[in-house]
Design a protein that fits this description.
There is one protein chain. With about 260 residues, the chain is α+β, with helices and mostly antiparallel strands. Helices cover about 15% and strands about 30% of the residues. The protein has a domain of about 150 residues: Sandwich (Jelly Rolls), CATH 2.60.120. The N terminus is likely disordered. Strands 3, 5, 8, 9 and 11 form a 5-stranded antiparallel beta sheet that branches. It starts with a helix and ends with a strand.
């Protein structure tokens, strides 16, 4: 008798378990008022169903969502790109097509904060120059639409004091020798006077021709240097001075071919 009762209870338990498995989906809870956790190694795999948030179906595929991985743009930056679409042109006939590409114009802001520049004294009353690299362009044909320097500040020391003078420039090569010229000044388009050196100075480049705005970095990528010239009558020893400035460059890479 005891074995018979045990067998009966086993059958009842099996029937109850099968009944749970057979319960229609609509009979299961539709609302989970709790936190669902998936431990390391766990997977939630939606096969053929739908994923919704607040009743709205998410229609993006896994590949489309994964394509967003690594993007660091802010909402403001994304909205700015969306607004830029309103400013594009259009092809004018049935035999022409136009492809618009956004975000090819770059705005680079470089902040110099106590950036050291070494100037080697050329002795006597000879002007002396030095410089340091502050930015690397990518390889390509670089077209600069604007170059602006704000609040350029030169720090004095025991060699260069408050009443000494000189110039600064930004160029694609480092400043050397007794003067700043050619590619040592080709981004600011000229030397900018700081006399005395304690003057806080701004500069906007006058890149007013195509030749002045175009920098061929297809063979070797172009660089940006901050250069200093110290007047020969003021410098009497090698010196390292720091500079502060905010440099804004508007530029485009026209390609590396």
């Amino acid at each position: 008798m005891k074995r018979t009762l045990t067998s009966i209870w086993a059958i009842i338990a099996l029937i109850a378990f099968v009944g749970i498995l057979a319960t229609p989906a609509e009979a299961l809870p539709k609302v989970i008022n709790d936190v669902v956790k998936v431990d390391t190694g766990g997977v939630i795999d939606i096969e053929g169903g739908k994923l919704k948030m607040a009743g709205v179906e998410i229609t993006a595929t896994a590949a489309e969502l994964n394509a967003m991985d690594g993007i660091t743009a802010t909402v403001t930056e994304l909205n700015a790109m969306d607004g830029a679409v309103d400013g594009v042109g259009s092809a004018t006939g049935s035999t022409e097509t136009a492809t618009e590409s956004l975000a090819y114009i770059q705005k680079t802001i470089i902040v110099l904060d106590d950036t050291p520049i070494v100037v080697t004294d050329l002795t006597g009353s000879t002007n002396s120059c030095g410089g340091t690299k502050i930015y690397d362009f990518p390889e390509g044909q670089i077209y600069i639409l604007g170059f602006q320097v704000e609040d350029f500040t030169f720090a004095t020391n025991s060699v260069i004091d408050n009443d000494h003078g000189g110039d600064f420039s930004f160029g694609t090569t480092v400043g050397t020798g007794s003067d700043l010229s050619t590619t040592e000044i080709d981004l600011t388009d000229a030397k900018v006077s700081i006399d005395p050196v304690t003057n806080v100075t701004d500069a906007v480049s006058a890149l007013d021709t195509v030749a002045e705005s175009y920098f061929d970095g297809t063979a070797t990528a172009k660089d940006v240097y901050c250069n200093i010239l110290l007047d020969g009558g003021d410098i009497d020893a090698d010196t390292t001075n720091t500079v502060d400035a905010t440099v804004t460059i508007i530029w485009a890479n026209l390609g590396d071919d």
